[in-house]
Amino acid sequence: MAICPAGEAAPQLVRPGHRWSRTEVLAWLRDDLPADTLVGMDLGISLAFQDRGAFFPGWAESPADAKGLWALIDRLCEDEPHLSVGAFVDHPEASAYFRRHGGREGAAFGANGQKGGRGRLRVSELAQQAMGCSPYSNFNLVGAAQVGKSSLSGMRVLHQLKGRLPVWPIDPLPAAGSVVCEIYTTIAAMAAGRSASRSKVRDGAELDEALARLGSSPVGLKGEVDDHTSDALMASAWLRKVAHDPALWAPARLTDAIAQTEGWTFGAV
Fold first, then answer.
1. Which of 37, 73, 203, 204 is most buried by a 10 A CB count?
2. What whole-number distance in Å separates Cα of residue 60 and Cα of residue 250?
3. 85 near 78, Cβ under 8 Å?
4. 44-53 confidence digits (pLDDT tens)
């Protein structure tokens, strides 16, 4: 995790060198988050709904909205340690909608209810594609680039915040105070002058160059930098730069129905 204050100061890692657990992140957001902070979570805050009129078409327990989805996942996984979601993705009904390891692809994984392909995408992910990004379906749990697992566990975090922090656009944007939004670090990298295919920064000098394009002072890391660190630092600086851009809070394709079911990715226009 990284954070930066208003102005041009370089973003800083929160507890450098610490390996965060999901429960620690949840506790930090609840108890230690500075006031008036825009929190970007690099995960999907919901699943595709608009394409088929339901998260899990044909399943009686399919929730009507994103908050219902969070509650369902958290309830089915209440005995899972570390906010894991194995009990959900292996559920006899839910598993039919996911692609899992070992060649286990549910019959309802693909677009239009068909097997195979990239899987179902949210409207915000289609907007990302139009920007030149390559988002993955949150129903896909296989491969190094998938974000499905972290998205589902992140939904447990969002549910357990229990109103402590609004989550845009599922909750209205507050007039003041902190708010959580979904981000895609490739969008931040593109704003910093990188291409979608070169979004990962693994060198300290290149990181400082990207930060400069985002109006930030340099971090000053030398040599090789892991891309988790650079993603966090760069995304933090990007959020500070664009947080007050009204166009990013009102994307053209975001409707009330989409906001309540699929949510949106901040920066996707």
1. 73
2. 33
3. no
4. 999 999 999 9
